[in-house]
Structures are given as structure tokens and as C-alpha cells.
């Protein structure tokens, strides 16, 4: 067989394979059940936090623009191996509230970050506002 004929046969085989691969997903999709119902977007949550490092001091300001309370915690990783890393106690940021979190290392700061979590209601308390009817 000549080279030109071989190329033509190979190109035709490649084209048939590509078309079959493109047609396969639509055949599989047609055989599946109806599309699931659209998922509601998640509720916005989480205070907006800004961190700054000056020397060995760390400051974070967190403002919560959302209606749910956010529990934030400042984490500081110090650069020196002998300098103790710190995880601050969690602080609850109520809606429309701004909090200031501070920490420090003895020497340089390697990394700073803030974590967020939704606070859980203590046992025996209700999450409904006062005066709400059950």
C-alpha cells in the first residue's frame, strides 16, 4: 500500500473514532434520569479579616457583614524553631461587629491566618430570638 493511501486510511479511522467518542456522551446522557433539581446557593457566611505584621507583632481586624455570628481564631506561626507558635482563643463576631485580634512572636513571624467556624448553641439553649413562638 502506498504512503498516501495509508495516511488516508489512518485519517479516516481517526475521524470515525473521534466522532464515535463525541457521540457517546450524548447517548449516555439521554439514557439517564431527569436532571436533578438545582441546588440552592449556600448562605453567605464568614467575617472579612485583614491581617498585618509589623516586626514580631500581628494584628487582625475582622468585620462580620452577615446576619449570622462567626467564630474567628487567629493563628500565628513564628519563624524561629524555638519560638512558640500560637493559636488564639476563639472570638465570636456578631453581625455588623468588628473585632481586633493580636498576637506576637519573640522574633520574626513566618505566617498568619484566621480560621472561621459557625458557633454551636450550648446545650439547653434555644437558637430562637427571645419572644419567638414555637
Automatic annotation (TrEMBL):
This is Secreted protein. It comes from Streptomyces melanogenes. Keywords: Signal. The keyword Signal applies. Residues 1-23 form the signal peptide. The keyword Signal applies.
Amino acid at each position: 500500500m502506498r504512503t498516501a493511501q495509508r495516511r488516508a486510511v489512518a485519517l479516516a479511522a481517526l475521524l470515525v473514532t473521534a466522532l464515535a467518542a463525541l457521540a457517546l456522551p450524548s447517548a449516555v446522557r439521554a439514557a439517564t434520569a431527569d436532571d436533578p433539581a438545582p441546588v440552592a446557593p449556600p448562605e453567605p457566611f464568614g467575617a472579612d479579616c485583614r491581617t498585618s505584621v509589623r516586626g514580631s507583632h500581628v494584628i487582625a481586624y475582622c468585620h462580620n457583614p452577615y446576619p449570622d455570628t462567626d467564630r474567628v481564631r487567629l493563628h500565628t506561626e513564628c519563624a524561629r524553631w524555638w519560638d512558640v507558635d500560637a493559636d488564639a482563643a476563639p472570638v465570636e463576631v456578631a453581625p455588623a461587629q468588628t473585632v481586633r485580634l493580636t498576637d506576637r512572636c519573640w522574633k520574626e513571624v513566618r505566617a498568619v491566618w484566621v480560621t472561621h467556624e459557625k458557633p454551636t448553641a450550648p446545650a439547653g439553649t434555644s437558637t430562637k430570638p427571645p419572644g419567638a413562638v414555637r
